[in-house]
């Protein structure tokens, strides 16, 4: 088998595997598609059955209310509803006749068959309801049993699903149908109860069970359904009718609970218990009757306390209860009297005659409490609960629409799988064929490259032989030249070593000189810096001296102004003293009346004299201060002149030191430059000496390499001969690969692989 055939087989095996997987997936999805189509058909059957169930639930409620009211309620509503039910029944039977029962199951066919048998008896039942000859229990059992068969058939249809999510939705749908059915039965039961005004037989227990079952099924639905369906249910249940229905249901529970307590009260108080024991005690006076009487009294008081604490009692209930309890207490108050009379051995007739208790109001009140009627209009109840059940029907239709939508989505997904599987199959075939062609093309290219490589190897062998001969000849000449170069390089090495030693000595001298000049440079720089600082200090002294001169001028001006002020004060003092003298004269003329004024005038004269003395003292101080100021001003002017001379000389010193620093710096730069050149010469000499040594070693290595080349040339000749043999083997291998790939031998032409002549593959020494 050729290599091409093997490659085709290698690609075909996984292709067949992928194709098989794709076909299997398509068949599996096709089966699933059939199941989905079956679910959609059964969903239509469920919708038709649900519509019939909904109308039968209404008819059941109306029939129950009609019987409970003894034919006075729902007289017109019941026949209309029966006509609607007949229409749905006719549509259901027509659909079932056309329905392909192979799409369902044996269980579905059996349940619908049983339901149809029961439905055939519906007219007889209706006649019994109309004539009120059928008991309500039998009517409820017929409708509930028939609806139950249909509901079980609906549950069986929605449970036929291959998808887990759809199965969960179907289960929640079935639970919701059961909850809706319980609501329908509750409608029927309370329609009968509200029409009669009381629970009879086991209706209350049945009612209580139905309410519990309704809530339980709704909880199951809530736990299994998705968020969108739960929110839809909450939205529908926010209708006021739902609240009103719940109120009436709670009213039924409360009234029944009160009725039980009232019945207990009537039983304990009646002639078979309390009254009976009371009469026995009055007539016989035995202790056992008294004890039993006391037990009855305690029990009645306890029941009365429970009833009084019950918030659901209305005003009429409380009035009747208080009548009964007051009569009870009247009897209780007579027990000690009866006991005392029996201890006195009073005749029974006298004891009985002495007790006067009118219990007729209590009996009447008990009758009113026990014989109760629900104050709920059965028509109002039926209308409100029907509104709620209609809302539940909308939720039911929404759930079924969701199941059908889910089936449609799954069908769309199956179509997508069909498409993807087909694309995968086609893509796999295309990739397989394309890759097979690419592999064959690569192999053919490889053969061509191998042929070309064989020619290249043969040509390279010839070139190696020629190069080996040339290398051997050149190696001998190179060895002689290397010996001469080695001698010359040894002489150059000795000279380089001498130059390096002299350069090192010169470099050391220049280094010491540079250090001395650097120290001089640093000293001149420090002197220049100090001169600059002195110059700055002189400038600051000049500025301070100028400020002092300004201040002295200001002081002098101030002294002159104070002198003028003191002169004015002296003049004022003189005038004041004259005024005081005049005042004293006038006071003397006034006699006794002017004595006080004379004292004041004398004090003013003294004050003026003191002020004059103070002014004179201030004048002397100011004059002394002015004299000192003039002396300070002269000294300040002299200090200013000295500072100007210092500033001028310090500036000159700074210029000289700066010039000296610049020249010293230039001298340092020249010495450093010369030192660098000497170091360069020294380094170059050392490098020259090192280079000569390295060249010498390199020459020795080259001599060794030259000797080695001669030996290698001989080995290369032998390798060229071996390479020629390898090229012949490569030629044979290419021919074999061509045979495996193409199915026939591909012969190499003689010019495709040149054989190197043997004489060119040997080297001559």
UniProtKB/TrEMBL annotation:
**Mind listing the UniProt keywords for this protein, alphabetically?**
Chemotaxis, Coiled coil, Membrane, Transducer, Transmembrane, Transmembrane helix
Q: Where is the composition biased (Polar residues)?
A: 742-752
Give Gene Ontology CC terms.
Answer: plasma membrane
Ranges where the record places region Disordered: 742-765
Q: Where are the transmembrane segments?
A: 413-433
Pfam family for this entry, one: NIT
User: What molecular function does GO assign, one term?
Assistant: transmembrane signaling receptor activity
Per the database record, which ranges form the Methyl-accepting transducer domain?
Answer: 453-724
Coiled-coil intervals = 695-740
Listed under GO biological process in this entry are: chemotaxis; signal transduction
Signal peptide location: none
Record family assignment: Belongs to the methyl-accepting chemotaxis (MCP) protein family.
How is this protein named in the record?
Answer: Methyl-accepting transducer domain-containing protein
Organism this protein belongs to: Candidatus Lambdaproteobacteria bacterium RIFOXYD2_FULL_50_16
